[in-house]
Amino acid sequence: MRRPRKRTGVAMSRLLASLCVALAAAPLAARAQTPEPTTEASPPALIVTIVVDQFSADLFNQYRDRFTGGLKTLADQGLVYANGYQQHAMTETCPGHATVLTGLNPARAGIPANDWIDRTTGQEVYCLAAPENTLAHGRNTDNGPVGPGQLTASTLGDWLKAVSPQSRVYAVSGKDRGAITLNGHQGDGAFWYTVGFGFTTYVEPGQAAEARLAPVADLNGRISARLQATPPSWTYSDETCRALEADWTVGGASFRATLPPQRLLIDVSPQLDELTLEAAIELLDSRELGRRGVTDMLGVSLSATDRIGHTFGNQGPEMCDQMYRLDKALGVFLDRVAQVPGGALVVLTADHGGNDFPERQSTRGFSEAKRGDPALLGRINAALREEFGLAVGPLTQGGSGVMVVGADNIALPQPLRGRIAAAAVEALRAEPTVAGAWTIEQALAAPAPAHDASPEELTLLERQRLGAVEGRSPDILLALQPGTTPGAGRAGLYVAGHGTPWNYDRRVPIIFWSPGGSGQERYLPIRTIDIAPTLARTIGLDTPEDLDGRCLDLGLFGAAPCAAAD
Question: Is residue 23 predicted with pLDDT exceeding 70?
Answer without folding.
Answer: no
